[in-house]
Amino acid sequence: FYLIYNNLFQVLFSTWIFYEAWASAWGNGYSLRCEPVDYSMSPSAMRVARGCWWYYISKFTEFFDTFFFVMRKKYDQVSTLHVIHHGIMPMSVWFGVKFTPGGHSTFFGFLNTFIHIIMYTYYLLAALGPHMQKYLWWKKYLTVLQMIQFIMVFLHASQLLFTDCDYPKAFAWFILMHAVLFYFLFYNFYKQSYTKREVKQKISQKKKDDDDRAHNRPVRVISEAERQKNKSFWSNMSLLTNIPCFLPAVTDVDEDSSDEAIKNNTVYSMPPHNSITTNAFMSGETSFHNRAFVSKSSNA
Prior knowledge:
Layout: H1 2-26, H2 43-61, H3 63-71, H4 80-99, H5 106-127, H6 139-158, H7 169-214, H8 224-241, E1 250-254, H9 259-263, E2 269-270, E3 275-279, E4 291-295
Antiparallel strand pairs: 1-4, 2-3, 3-4
């Protein structure tokens, strides 16, 4: 429940900050090419500065993520990206609020709060339980959105290096370095978490398929419903006849359907384990025709 409440709070908090940034600045006349800082005490300037201050506070409320990761012993989620991101951002935003409480650099926070609305919505849905997993197929696209965010921030800040804008160029470089650093951190995270994992899964599946072909293993896949039906039928037969129809660790295989094979109770081999049939009882049921139950032990 703590996770649910925390993520809900973060969604609402980020939504409010995003609204303030839009209403007071980026949806209210701010220029994308050059926006100097308004250091006056006017109501509009103070509203922007107040929004910057609340954005700074949000960098500390985000520490609850780390707290819950540690409390739940999810140490793998406290990654290098997580530590660097949450370690750098509070100090960086403090410098911004202290020296440039408004203007061009607020574009970073404006985009960042929008991404956080989506991100914490995902966390909120995930915290509701396993039944929500089928709706969370878009997880990896969160990281893609993060990378797009830093590309946009980089392009937006780089304009200040080539235009005459009354905005501190030192802060432009400061923002550019952050954008580059975080882009490559998120890119590396994406590559490690998704690209390499998918490649490994494909290689593993290919090796398994090649191994199955090399050993002529049965390719027929028995559904769980059919397996349960088989189990129920043969268990009932065992109770009626007192004949043990199962031995330990049985495996379903295809067998010869000829009348001669059934008549002679033919023994079948099961490569690569050299298993032999220990029960060749055949059912008249069409769903069980041509089926034998084979022990994995060659000494059975």
